[in-house]
Write a structure and sequence with these properties.
Layout (H helix, E strand, L loop, with lengths): L12 H53 L2 H11 L4 H28 L1 H7 L6 H26 L4 H23 L3 H28 L12 H35 L2 H11 L2 H4 L1 H10 L12 H24 L1 H9 L6 H7 L1 H7 L2 H11 L2 H26 L2 H26 L4 H27 L4 H21 L5 H19 L1
Helix pairs in contact: 1-3, 1-5, 1-6, 1-7, 1-8, 1-9, 1-11, 2-3, 2-5, 2-8, 3-5, 4-5, 5-7, 6-7, 8-9, 8-17, 8-18, 9-14, 11-12, 11-16, 12-15, 12-19, 13-14, 14-18, 15-18, 16-18, 17-18, 19-20
Length: 502
């Protein structure tokens, strides 16, 4: 009989949030270093080729995963106290995703040359082949990461993601530095994800034993059918959301050129870094809303939603006021035209701070099917704006379309959560109004900074500190936060650090 190993019992929400944030921070640091290196080393055209290959592979990745990782995570979350059942769910899902991922990655590898010809870019073929190899490992790794999130043991993911990210960054930088161009960046990505899968499989074997890979006592087709049934609407959602996230790059490549893809793709590559906290909170709070013996944590959901609004509103001021300086500092003077893209993406940044929590919660509530019409509506808004405006105003149109799409996507998911969990939206609306008011005051401070002194890293740090003080002061003045909240947060962090060091 399987022993209850270190995965059980589940960790607390606060502990999982910290570990999830560390996971996101790890990914962010390595991704930022790699992305900035690639942007500067490859240049706008080659980086545009790499970004286009990623966009194409993202669509193939939807087929590779078929919604299976998210589907199985819901069932594991509902039965997280049963290690034998969790191992069986992992085993069945692994068998399914190996088949779908192998088919999708093989098809993409074989289609690399025709796709490159379709885009009139011969240099696109080998980057697509490298990404195709990466696609298989990415899909399998996604299954294991989803499993550990559903079990509320995100500390395990920290080990996996650190080693995967370090391997990917090292391989990508080394290959590109050796002169392999966009293809080297793609194959470096494949190396990183292969390392990640090896680590994840090793941890799963340590925790569950061979039963997570080899069935004992026969198979259970009913369980596999249940996974696939819930995976069907999730696959539809992943497909629509994948198009929503990546179609901009493809349309820019079709209407404009790879240079424009690079100008839009560079600011978009910053978005996952800004999304880190939102994903950390979602991974910790959303699984607790699944129906289980422990019940739902509605208060944790509403509290997390409020704090996400307060945090992401603070990002608006620097992204709007300092867009030109941020682009030049991070990407170089060649990307000066990306500043307008970054400004136009700020509504998306704010709404995307809320999106992971509300959308993932709907999945764990078992209402994935209700998300499909919402995603279709958001996609229609995005595509309509892109097609209408790309030939007229260039890559800025894609930023407008993405922000408009999320003005549809996020409120609709929030409405489903409110109906299912039974909380009031009025406190959240009040918090959002106060946060946006504070962000406006912060923007004034940042604008004054660039007018009075020359922009540099040092003056930016001082200006940002002053802006954040004004932001916090407005929140205190409007009674959105109390000084006791700061003290309480410091005590919680201090307590957690002491526990980790003893």
């Amino acid at each position: 009989m399987m022993q209850r190993r270190e995965l059980y019992p589940a960790q607390s929400i606060s502990r999982n949030t910290v570990f999830s944030l560390l996971v996101q921070a790890t990914t962010t640091v390595f991704t930022a270093a790699t992305t900035l290196f690639l942007i500067r080393r490859l240049g706008t055209e080659s980086f545009g080729t790499f970004a286009l290959a990623l966009g194409i592979s993202g669509i193939a990745g939807l087929v590779a995963r078929c919604g299976i990782p998210t589907s199985v995570s819901r069932f594991v979350a509902e039965n997280r106290d049963d290690p034998v059942g969790s191992a069986a769910l992992l085993r069945d899902a692994l068998g399914l995703i190996i088949v779908t991922a192998a088919l999708a990655s093989s098809a993409l590898f074989l289609a690399a040359e025709p796709i490159a010809r379709a885009y009139s870019d011969p240099g696109l073929a080998w980057p697509i082949r490298g990404i195709a190899i990466s696609l298989f490992a990415e899909s399998v790794l996604a299954l294991y990461l989803s499993l550990f999130i559903a079990l509320a043991r995100i500390a395990v993911n920290l080990r996996v993601v650190f080693l995967e990210s370090a391997a990917e960054a090292t391989a990508s930088i080394a290959l590109v530095a050796a002169g392999t161009g966009a293809a080297g960046a793609a194959f470096g990505r494949a190396i990183g994800y292969t390392v990640g899968v090896a680590v994840a499989v090793g941890i799963a074997l340590t925790l569950f034993g061979r039963v997570s890979l080899v069935a004992r006592g026969g198979s259970y087709p009913r369980r596999r059918r249940a996974i696939l049934r819930y995976a069907a609407p999730l696959f539809a959602l992943d497909t629509i959301y994948g198009l929503l996230s990546r179609l901009d790059l493809l349309l820019i490549g079709a209407f404009l050129n790879t240079t424009s893809v690079g100008l839009y793709g560079a600011p978009r590559r910053l978005m996952p870094m800004l999304e880190s906290l939102a994903l950390a909170v979602a991974n910790s709070v959303a699984p607790r809303q699944a129906t289980s013996s422990a019940g739902r944590s509605v208060q944790a959901f509403t509290r997390a939603l409020r704090w996400l609004v307060l945090v992401y509103a603070a990002l608006l001021a620097p992204l709007i006021v300092w867009a030109g300086q941020i682009v030049e500092l991070l990407f170089g003077a060649d990307y000066a035209e990306s500043a307008s893209v970054l400004r136009l993406l700020t509504p998306f940044v704010f709404l995307n701070g809320i999106s992971p929590l509300v959308s993932t919660t709907v999945n764990f509530l078992g209402y994935a099917g209700r998300r499909v019409p919402i995603a279709l509506a958001a996609l229609a808004v995005n595509v309509g704006i892109d097609v209408a405006l790309l030939p007229r105003i260039g890559e800025d149109a894609a930023a407008i379309g993405m922000s408009a799409a999320f003005c549809v996507y996020v409120p609709a998911h929030l409405y489903i959560c409110r109906r299912a969990l039974g909380f009031s939206l009025r406190p959240l609306a009040t918090s959002a109004f106060r946060a946006l008011t504070a962000a406006a005051a912060m923007a004034g401070v940042l604008a004054l900074t660039v007018r009075v002194v020359e922009f540099s890293i040092g003056t930016a740090a001082l200006g940002l500190a002053a802006g954040l003080l004004v932001y916090a002061a407005v929140l205190v003045a409007t009674r959105e936060i109390a000084l006791t909240d700061v003290g309480r947060a410091r005590r919680v962090v201090g307590l957690w650090l002491r526990r980790r060091t003893t």
